[in-house]
Write a structure and sequence with these properties.
This protein is mainly alpha-helical and 143 residues long. 80% of the residues lie in helices and 8% in strands. It contains 5 helices and 3 strands.
């Protein structure tokens, strides 16, 4: 049995009996766990809010632990990994979108400068045309 199987077993047992003596459970089932492994299991139960203890002896399952016990601890961990992967993918999509927006903004700025230049050219042409029309009217008026 690996650590996940042991945690699933402990959660299931706590759901049925409500209270367990964790160290007794870990040593009585011939898991052949080292002290470090036992501490890791205890830490996992506490950090992930699956179970809590009073004075390190009796362990009680938490409401979160009951939910995970029904769902399965291994599946819970797999779902966390899937959520992390989806989050990373979403962050990458958002990053790519931000890059795309920056490039679009640069292109819009370039087009804006071209449009501004064309606007000035059009005004100059309009002024030249107006001068031409005025000169044409003056010439026609004199003749």
């Amino acid at each position: 049995m690996d650590r996940i199987d042991i945690i699933e077993y402990l959660l299931d047992k706590m759901c049925k009996n409500e209270v367990i003596h964790l160290r007794y459970e870990l040593h009585s089932n011939n898991y052949r766990l080292t002290e470090v492994e036992c501490n890791l299991i205890e830490s996992t139960l506490q950090i992930e809010n699956l179970a809590e203890t009073q004075k390190g002896m009796n362990w009680y399952i938490t409401p979160h632990g009951e939910t995970i016990s029904k769902y399965g601890y291994r599946r819970y961990l797999e779902d966390i990994e899937i959520a992390k992967t989806k989050k990373k993918e979403m962050e990458q999509v958002e990053f790519d979108l931000a890059i795309s927006n920056i490039e679009a903004n640069k292109l819009n700025l370039k087009n804006s400068l071209v449009n501004h230049r064309n606007f000035i050219i059009n005004i100059i042409i309009a002024i030249i045309n107006m001068v031409g029309i005025i000169l044409n009217v003056i010439i026609l008026a004199k003749s």
